[in-house]
Write a sequence for this structure.
């Protein structure tokens, strides 16, 4: 009989645990699913297929994000840490910055993108590509959410290993004479 603790420690064997580690591939599928929307295909079947693809990938991405919140660094996630995390954190600085923005600011940006896209589409006659900035922001946020737990100790925006002034915390070396006394 498995307990709730067994499930938490053994998420890699569950379907949800396996699905949670496929967020990057799922984001790519979601991007591909938007191609009919941007190309102007509005036929009923293509719209239905697009809706199903987006709903499915959104569900899978949600499972992945819940996994990251519940268990920030499981065994399989730890294996995905890059060989040179400092360089990877430097290279993905923009994604990590987007990840660290507060949710209310993020949703303000998404709302602004939606309003601009709607205005460009409605009044200026721009095609559906006007919605691209909002989708790019959403994909960047999801990818940053996938990437951040692997790079947390090297993230330039986390307070990991720093005091309130931003200086690195250094532990004093033990006094050898005190260690010898004990």
């Amino acid at each position: 009989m498995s307990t709730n603790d067994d499930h938490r420690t053994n998420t890699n064997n569950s379907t949800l645990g396996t699905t949670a580690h496929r967020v990057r591939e799922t984001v790519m599928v979601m991007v591909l699913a938007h191609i009919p929307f941007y190309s102007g295909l509005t036929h009923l079947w293509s719209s239905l297929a697009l809706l199903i693809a987006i709903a499915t990938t959104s569900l899978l991405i949600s499972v992945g994000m819940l996994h990251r919140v519940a268990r920030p660094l499981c065994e399989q996630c730890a294996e995905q840490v890059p060989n040179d995390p400092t360089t990877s954190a430097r290279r993905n600085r923009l994604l990590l910055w987007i990840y660290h923005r507060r949710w209310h600011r993020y949703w303000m940006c998404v709302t602004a993108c939606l309003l601009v896209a709607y205005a460009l589409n409605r009044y200026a006659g721009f095609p559906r590509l006007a919605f691209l900035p909002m989708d790019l922001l959403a994909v960047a946020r999801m990818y940053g959410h996938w990437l951040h737990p692997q790079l947390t100790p090297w993230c330039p925006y986390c307070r990991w290993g720093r005091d309130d002034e931003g200086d690195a915390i250094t532990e004093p070396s033990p006094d050898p004479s005190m260690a010898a006394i004990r």
Residues 11-72 form one domain. The CA atoms of residues 98 and 106 lie 8 Å apart. The radius of gyration is 22 Å.
